[in-house]
Amino acid sequence: MTSTETRADRFVRELAELKIADPAAGRPRLWLRLGATLMVLGPVLGVSAFLISHRTSSPLVQGDAITIGLGAVTVSVVGAALFLRYSLTGFLRFWMARQSYDLTHLADRVFEKEVSRDLTSRES
Amino acid sequence: MNVLLELREVRAAYDGVTVLHGVDLSVAAGQVVALLGPNGAGKTTTLRVAAGVHPVQSGRLVLGGRDVTGIAPRDLARAGVCLIPEGRGVFPNLSVRDNLLMMTFTGRSREHIEELAFSRFPVLARYASRAAGTLSGGEQQMLALARGLATDPAVLLLDELSMGLAPLVVTRLYEQVAEIARQGVAVLIVEQFAAAVLGIADHAAVLVRGRVERQGRPDSALRAELSALYLGSST
Fold first, then answer.
1. End-to-end Cα, chain B, rounded Å
2. Neighbouring residues of A87: CB distance < 8 A, sequence distance ≥ 6
């Protein structure tokens, strides 16, 4: 993609290739995937550190294993935080839309009831 | 001319009843096309077909030179087709700011979307914390337009923008639409009330009973024909 490409050109190009870029596949999606990867990587590193420390009696190597283990905890925590942050954003957005829709629907129903009650009382 | 949206011989139906009988229409980048006609002519259905929301019986929907008939509306929206439906489609219980926040699904930041919306429609910045349902019709339409613009559309489809609005507000909104088109967006507007939209349209098509009866530049001949259509006699 060139910097001089207009929106219309990009539209034509993307449709010609039929590779329609998912707008959500920008930075938020990248962070979400990174978070998930780190959450998996953390336990893997932790188990590796455990195995390394058990297969040696050298305090130096065990020291390295402890460092890897601490790194694994950090990676897991950071990964979980990223994953939660970006998955919750998506969830809350749709939850908010749903709430809004439900409230509007409820308000319409209440309003309809009020109007019909009003009309009935006037007739009687 | 860089044609972004084309309908070729499109036929569409509701429950087996055909409402579009071979509609041909095209909109180029930077062009405003007005689709006019009386109630029940099939204008909204044409827009829904263009957005991929309504299936076609036969014919082709071509976007950017590519046949995209049958492609999911979600994919067309991602590509840059934006439909602003009749009734505006804003969340009435959410504040203006939250309505704009919902558009961050496009991958743009909240700040960017707000800047885009508030610079074009300063009145929205004033009422940023107010529930969208408490805004006037014109302001709600501005919010709907701002939400549409947040998707970075290449093709903008507007359904009855003027519905329930004062003439002055309609004129202002159409000025904004013309400005959007000048930035290279292809705009297709469906309108029942022709006067305002013909002021900004580069091209107009008159739809009657599911057929494009006439199209061309919105000159006096077309206006006269529209008058005849609406009033039953030539003026």
1. 34
2. A32, A35
**Complex ipTM > 0.85:** no
Name the region of A92 (left: φ>0; alpha: ψ -120 to 50; beta: rest). Answer: alpha
Q: Which residue has the tokens 């590519």?
A: B66
Q: Which of A15, A89, A101 sits opposite B68 (nearest CB)?
A: A15
Helix (H) or strand (E) holding B196: helix B194-198
Sorted by sequence, the CB contacts under 8 Å of residue B110 that are 6+ apart come out as B100, B101, B104
Distance CA B235, CA B225 (A): 8
Residue B201: which residues within 8 A CB-CB, separation 6 or more?
Answer: B32, B33, B34, B189, B218
Q: Is the pLDDT of residue B168 over 90?
A: no
Q: Cβ–Cβ of B98/A10 closer than 8 Å?
A: no
Residue with tokens 């029942």: B192
DSSP state of B158: E
Confirm whether pTM is higher than 0.90: no
User: Two tokens at A71?
Assistant: 């790194």
Give chain A's length: 124
B93: contact with A, CB 8 A cutoff: yes
Residue B75 one-letter amino acid:
D
Residue A61 · residue A49 · CB < 8 Å: no
Q: Which 8-state DSSP code applies to residue A40?
A: H
* Structure token digits, residue B197: 């939209």
- Note which residues in 7-66 of chain B have CB less than 8 A from chain A: 29-30, 63-66
Model confidence over B197-228: pLDDT tens digits?
A: 888 999 999 998 999 988 888 877 777 777 77
